[in-house]
Amino acid sequence: SNDWVIPSDLDEFNQYPVTLPELVHKLQTGFFTHMSGHLSDRISVSGELNGLLPIEDGVSIWKQYPLVGQVTALLSRGRTDKVLISRGDLAWGMGHHQMRDADNLNSYPELGVSHHFKWIGGLEQRLGWRIDNEQRVRLPWSEESLRLVNYFQQHGRVIHEHVAAIEGWHP
User: Fold this and answer.
1) Tell me, what DSSP letter sits at residue 72?
2) How far apart are CA 76 and CA 145, in angstroms?
3) Which single residue of 105, 122, 130, 151 could bond 145 by disulfide (Cβ 3.0 to 4.6 Å)?
4) pTM value?
5) How would you class 29 by CB atoms within 10 Å of its CB: exposed for 0-12, middle for 13-18, buried for 19 or more?
6) Gap between the Cα atoms of 41 and 168, Å rounded
7) Is residue 1 scored above 60 in pLDDT?
8) Within 13 Å of residue 25, how many CA atoms lie on the same side as its CB?
């Protein structure tokens, strides 16, 4: 297929090692089927689940959430691998974490990054919805959501030391 598809959740911003036209050229000429990456959880300086400031305030999302930490891996114990681009005729697994089985999958050797802006205001409400609805249909994220709700009830924020938080990349 000549079509390339970029899966991304609304709370993610994908970063690639080269421009998209260059990457697609490398994928096609190298007969690669996809490129993967990892989640980079973005958190506020305080670790609190602050709401996003309006764009009119002129503060970029990168300045609002300048730290990266392993929230998904260490607190929710969720998957941190992500498919960042793939051929259009191939399918992904749930949450875009991996490619579905197909003949001759060939991953591009460099990894990209999916900057994960999940740790913001309103998260606890969204987690509650996930627990109520995803347990009912047996989706795997309900257990992760329950772990996070329990953590936030206990600590009220992301404790930097719990997730190895450091200053993160920003444009």
Assistant:
1) I
2) 7
3) 130
4) 0.89
5) exposed
6) 9
7) no
8) 6
